[in-house]
């Protein structure tokens, strides 16, 4: 009984950062159990994206080629296994998009309605939309949709205007801020509030931190390139992971930097997969489950 009360208090600690969060004692986890499979599928799909991109890029580099962006990496998957992989990626990303939307709407992670909580929940919606868009890219890689020079021309025309230049620049700066937040998560390790404590998560936490830091570096590079494109009104520099790889390759020891980044993204893929298996949803959590944060605190006392 004491252990049960302690783990419930741990869940309270997770929510205590958000002043107006609903009392978790008043919530029956079974009411939100339906959200757990969606969350698991979403994080698994996200993990698969980074596994494919980093894996294909490393293989290409070792074969004398170049690192590839998300769409190019998916297009390089051929044959029945490749098609199945891309379908799994798309389904997972759409599941992740849905998960972020319902997570925000039902406040499943108890962020509450304080200013900080509202910002966090808006961020969930944004990440949901972004990952839904990546899911569309996956479908595009199968050849069921098309995107080409017309979209690039529209972006270029938009960026030639003063409004377009400012919008793209601000979008780039916000992306940089997102990358900084990933670094903050890696340093503060606040993700431990939402991960179950077990042998793997407790002993391999350094890999999770490295993966988050690598994702932070990637997102910051992408954001910086987008912001620069906005300031220079040049749409060719505004891109995703492929553009970031191209920029890194042009630097001193470029290939080594790209390889290190790919290895880091494999770590982020692991981080996403660990979340798929062991993430704690405060409003849907079994009270007997202990978080990493609680376990670390317990070991320190």
From TrEMBL:
It comes from marine sediment metagenome. The keyword Membrane applies. The chain crosses the membrane at residues 43-61, 81-102, 122-145, 165-184, 204-228, 256-278. Pfam families: DUF1206 (PF06724). Keywords: Membrane, Transmembrane, Transmembrane helix. InterPro entries: DUF1206. This is DUF1206 domain-containing protein. Residues 41-106, 122-187, 210-279 form the DUF1206 domain.
């Amino acid at each position: 009984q004491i252990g049960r009360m302690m783990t419930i208090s741990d869940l309270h600690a997770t929510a205590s950062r958000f002043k107006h969060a609903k009392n978790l004692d008043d919530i029956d986890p079974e009411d939100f159990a339906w959200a757990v499979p969606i969350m698991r599928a979403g994080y698994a799909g996200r993990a698969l994206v980074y596994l494919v991109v980093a894996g294909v890029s490393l293989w290409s580099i070792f074969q004398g080629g170049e690192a590839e962006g998300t769409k190019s990496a998916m297009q390089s998957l051929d044959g029945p296994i490749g098609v199945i992989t891309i379908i799994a990626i798309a389904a997972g990303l759409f599941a992740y998009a849905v998960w972020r939307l319902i997570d925000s709407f039902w406040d499943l992670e108890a962020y509450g309605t304080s200013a900080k909580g509202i910002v966090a929940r808006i961020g969930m919606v944004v990440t949901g939309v972004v990952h839904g868009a990546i899911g569309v890219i996956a479908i595009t890689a199968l050849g069921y949709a098309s995107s080409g020079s017309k979209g690039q021309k529209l972006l270029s025309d938009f960026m030639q205007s003063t409004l377009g230049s400012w919008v793209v620049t601000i979008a780039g700066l916000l992306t940089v801020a997102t990358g900084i937040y990933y670094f903050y998560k890696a340093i503060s390790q606040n993700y431990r509030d939402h991960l179950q404590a077990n042998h793997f998560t407790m002993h391999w936490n350094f890999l999770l931190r490295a993966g988050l830091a690598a994702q932070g570096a990637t997102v910051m590079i992408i954001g910086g390139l987008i912001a620069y494109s906005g300031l220079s009104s040049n749409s060719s520099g505004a891109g995703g992971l492929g553009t970031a790889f191209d920029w890194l390759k042009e630097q001193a020891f470029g290939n080594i930097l790209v390889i290190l980044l790919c290895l880091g993204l494999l770590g982020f893929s692991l981080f996403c997969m660990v979340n798929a298996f062991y993430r704690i949803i405060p409003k849907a959590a079994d009270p007997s489950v202990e978080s990493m944060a609680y376990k670390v605190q317990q070991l320190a006392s």
